[in-house]
Amino acid sequence: MQYFESGDIRLAFAEFYPDIPSVGTIVLVHGLASNHIVNWVATLWTKTLTHAGFRVVVFDNRGHGSSEKFYDPGRYDTLAMAADIGRLMDHLDIERADVMGYSMGARISARFAIDSPERVRSLMLGGLGINLLKENLIPLSIAEAMEAESLAGLTDPVQRMFRAFAEQTKSDLKALAACIRGFRRTLSVSEIGSILCPTLVSVGTADTVAGSPYELATLIPGARVVDIPGKDHNMAVGDRTHKQGVLEFLAQRP
């Protein structure tokens, strides 16, 4: 585990190198209540991508994993979280990289591609379709679930799912609640339409969180879609079809 300073905060990151000559660098951005180990290492994404020749850079979003925690929602604005990607790339002297995000990480990655298009070789948006544009992407009820006295007291299935996952990943529940309350900035149709780099949208066919990947892809010039058969929001992350679709996309993009 390594650390870098993104403005005035300390974030954790790790690098994985291929055994064969590198074909490029890819930065991976995890989702809510996850971290780089759960989202990318345990699912064998780092192994898959290094085997394909990529240098892989992963990090823990602010408020997550081993990165610094905040309890002020103002520290979790989407613009700030997207800027963390650029500062990590600066720290590692990476001028341009492929960028892949999952769920909340997909919105962060899209924001980075909009704000810094010259730094994104290609963009992969996993676990989010048209709901990428949804104002209430992460309902405030999920923040309330993080603040609840215990999982046992929750009856709503979505609240229980997120709270159980957060406990499983040993997340700081107060920091997650603040993140949810601060991560409210939306993306507009015109902003999404300004993404001109090769883009892939990957969503499980049983995902009830993401919204239609096809509706989102029609808004991004030239975007492609990968359906992940039979997988819900949590199970689609490390699915074999997901990995194969990403590898094929990376092999074909300029």
What secondary-structure arrangement, pairings included, does this model have?
Blueprint: E1 2-6, E2 9-16, E3 24-29, H1 36-41, H2 45-51, E4 54-59, H3 78-91, E5 97-102, H4 104-115, E6 120-126, H5 140-147, H6 157-168, H7 173-182, H8 189-193, E7 199-204, H9 213-217, E8 224-228, H10 240-252
Parallel strand pairs: 3-4, 3-5, 5-6, 6-7, 7-8
Antiparallel strand pairs: 1-2, 2-4
Structure commentary:
36% of the residues lie in helices and 19% in strands. The protein has 254 residues and is of the alpha/beta class. It has an eight-stranded mixed beta sheet with strand order 1-2-4-3-5-6-7-8. The model has no long low-confidence stretch (mean pLDDT 97).
Question: What does this entry show, briefly?
Answer:
With 254 residues, the chain is an alpha/beta fold.
Label this structure with key terms.
eight-stranded mixed sheet, alpha/beta, 254 residues, 8 strands, globular
Sheet of most strands: 8 strands, mixed
Q: How do the strands line up in the largest sheet?
A: 1-2-4-3-5-6-7-8
Following the backbone from N to C, one meets helices and strands in this order, namely EEEHHEHEHEHHHHEHEH
Q: Quote the average pLDDT.
A: 97
What is the β-strand count? Answer: 8
Judged by helices, strands and strand pairing, the structural class is alpha/beta
From the alpha carbons, calculate the radius of gyration and give it in angstroms.
17 Å
Global geometry? globular
Strand content: 15-25%
User: Helical residue percent?
Assistant: 25-40%
User: Which regions contain 5 or more consecutive residues with pLDDT less than 50?
Assistant: none
Q: How far do the termini sit from each other?
A: 32 Å
Number of H- or I-type helical stretches: 10
